[in-house]
Amino acid sequence: MGLIEQAAKRLAELRRAGVEVTEKVEPGGRHAIPSRAASEAAPIGHSRAARLDLDLAKLAAEGFVTPDMPRSRIADEFRVIKRPLIANATGKGSTQIRHGNLIMVTSAVPGEGKTFSAVNLAMSIAMEQDRTVLLVDADVARPSLPRTFAIPDSPGLLDVLNDKSVDLGQVLHHTNVEKLTFLSSGSQHARSAEMLASDAMTDVLNELAARYSDRIVVFDSPPLLVTPDARVLASRVGQILFIVDAERTLQSDVKRALAAIEACPIKLMVLNRARTTAQGAYGYGYDYGH
Fold first, then answer.
1. How far apart are the C-alpha atoms of 218 and 99, rounded to whole Å?
2. Containing H/E element for 77?
3. Region of residue 156 (phi > 0: left; psi between -120 and 50: alpha; otherwise: beta)
4. What is the SS3 assignment for 203?
5. What dihedral angle (degrees, nearest 10) is formed by the CA atoms of 223, 282, 101, 230?
6. What element of type H or E holds 83?
7. What pLDDT, in 10s, does the model give residues 201-258?
8. In sequence order, what DSSP letters do the residues of 28-76 get, joined into one string?
9. Spatial distance between the Cα atoms of 2 and 213, rounded to a whole number of angstroms
């Protein structure tokens, strides 16, 4: 079978599987060039994860950043927060770091706004001209992103780690935010901490970090002082966004949590609900270090 016939056969297979394909004419014949959607799709014979249509109006009403919202204070605050993270992720920061495009969002204890911050960070990065973002629900014990997005639970990260027959491309959800993809935590498992520390997780992280040069991966992680899962993940990412409730988090908890993530080279602290001088409002403050 010639090259043209091989390309035509592969094109037909991809289209039967529901994969978007673009075509480019090269010298000597036409070749099917799979688009990004194709390269993230499951192998032939497997189902892809369903596309998620997020209720952007509802998210905006709840204070989240959305691509079509008018300029706002919260959007500007996350523009400031994301800039050093993107610089480090793309090798333009002061230090070259491994897996700099893997960013973990966490806190010391529950209720400090880490999921709110993870979603807003991902949305803000999705608004970049030359970046795409994958939002991963890594709070495997108590996932909150399905509730935040008002979507059903679905197979995700733990299913990939627990079952070798589940391909990562089968559980990645494209969304109606053009540059945002979502990966759920998946089926709960009693040995989730061991799974996050496994060689399979190393392989997944390596694939996520290297799959696309323009992608940044944001992990909504569990609080550090509640479960060991977060500490395991912290040792494997390049950057951590550490959320602190400025009004109620104990200094001793902050110190204990920071001690648990010493292995991560880059840590950006965000003070959530920090008082500002503008009409007594609350917003975010920043402290950057490594």
1. 12
2. helix 73-89
3. beta
4. helix
5. 0
6. helix 73-89
7. 999 999 999 888 899 999 999 999 998 888 889 989 999 999 999 888 899 999 999 9
8. TEEEEEE-HHHHHSPPTTSPPPPPB---HHHHHHTT---TTSPP-HHHH
9. 33
Angle subtended at Cα 92 by Cα 90 and Cα 94, rounded to the nearest 5 degrees: 130
Chain position carrying tokens 């040995």: 191
Tell the residue number behind the tokens 């090269």, with chain if given.
Answer: 26
Q: Are 284 and 272 in contact (CB under 8 A)?
A: yes
pTM (whole model) above 0.70: yes
What gap in Å lies between CA 261 and CA 267, rounded to an integer?
A: 9
Of the ranges 17-26, 112-121, 226-235, 245-254, the best mean pLDDT one? 112-121
Number of residues that this document lists for the chain: 290
Task: Check if the beta carbon of residue 176 is closer than 8 Å to that of residue 54.
Answer: yes
Q: Is the pLDDT of residue 183 over 90?
A: yes
Unique residue bearing structure tokens 């988090």: 249
Among 46, 50, 11, which Cα is nearest to 31's? 11
DSSP letter assigned to residue 226? T
Q: What token pair was written down for 268?
A: 């950006």
**Residues 6 or more apart in contact with residue 202 via CB below 8 angstroms:** 236
Residue 34 has pLDDT above 90, yes or no: no
Q: Quote the crossing angle between the two packed helices 114-126 and 73-89, to the nearest 10°.
A: 80
Tokens, residue 284: 């975010």
